[in-house]
Design goal:
About 25% of the residues lie in helices and about 25% in strands. The protein has about 375 residues and is of the alpha/beta class. Bound molecules: NADP nicotinamide-adenine-dinucleotide phosphate.
Length: about 375
Amino acid sequence: MTENLNDYELALNLAENISVNLSPRPPVGAIITNEGELLGKGVTQPSPGNHAEINAILDCKNNNFSTKGSTMYTTLEPCFHEGETNPCVDKIIESGISQVFIGVVDPNPKVNEKSINKLLSNGIKVNIIEDEVQRKRSEDLIEPFKHFITTGMPYVTSKIAISLDGKIATKTGDSKWISSEKSREIVQKMRSLSDAIIIGSKTLKIDKPSLSAKEISEQPRYKVVLNSKPSNPERYLTLKSESEIIVFCEKTPTDLSSWKGIEFIEIASKDNKLDLKEALRILGERNCMNVLVEGGGQLIGSLIDLNLINKMRLFISPMLIGGINSADSIGGEGIEFISQSKKLTDMEVVRVESDIMVTGKVKSHV
Ligand SMILES: NC(=O)c1ccc[n+]([C@@H]2O[C@H](COP(=O)([O-])OP(=O)(O)OC[C@H]3O[C@@H](n4cnc5c(N)ncnc54)[C@H](OP(=O)(O)O)[C@@H]3O)[C@@H](O)[C@H]2O)c1
């Protein structure tokens, strides 16, 4: 039984082009064919919508095609467990599909190979996609989901706009704007695909950001600030929107009436640094699968020291800022030897107007 690379490519393209936040679901694409003819296709919808496989089966019905004896290509092993939707594996069996090609086995312990075994025991042929490039693309698609489902921790992406000399602000703290307009549009999209956006208290104080995804209807669920001893409610006004605001702190302020609409979560602190692992763990418990860290350098540095960043995206702008007192892109403790440096893999380099956008995975997480 050989796989049809073009059919699987179509399923992959469907999944890769999902442009809404599905969290905590992974993006999945599925198609159904029979003797080379495309009968139906589907993608996973945000909860409580259907998974890709069910949508593909429904699409066949809408197109008046029978699924009996057909072939399904899906980028992830179909689900096995009762959740908000009926298990996809049962729907596939009921539909009479006779073979299924799967991009990756589901890392979720509730599914992991169980659906494959159930399909096989119901006489359905199952093949894992063999093409290495397509396998890798399928694995990349579920990387945040895999991290989240196996560790309970959010997949953390950090975005920074830097000058050619690695600065993120001038000596007065001014940072508007280092990156190009197009780069900033990309950041708006990244925000809309995130469950939570995190910043340090100095970025809140100096930049007065909104952290909203401008001109996009989908917004992050949480805007999060690390602020040990919150003392200035006015500073938080710029964050007010439909997103919930969380402040991780050492001590909740006593004058809560001045802080309406803000949730305080107390966490431990050492040497004036809040416990970032605990903060992320709490966000994970709230089903935050994708977290975007927007700086500044101290916060990103601390996260890197603790190996808590999965992916970095830098917008490098053709400008020089200079100044010993201008903020550097990454603070924290740093390392003693180059051999201890955090390596990035899967590097992508793209020109965005005058900027260079560099994206890579931090190797300790690969
Ligand atoms: N170009 C860019 O992409 C970009 C993005 C963001 C910011 N910026 C610039 O960066 C500058 C601010 O950055 P920054 O590095 O000075 O400060 P920052 O990272 O925004 O905030 C640092 C503060 O966060 C709090 N914090 C709590 N726990 C922490 C922990 N474990 N690790 C680190 N921080 C922790 C501390 O304040 P508490 O004592 O209140 O807890 C700490 O002083 C501004 O000038 C801003 O314009 C640039």
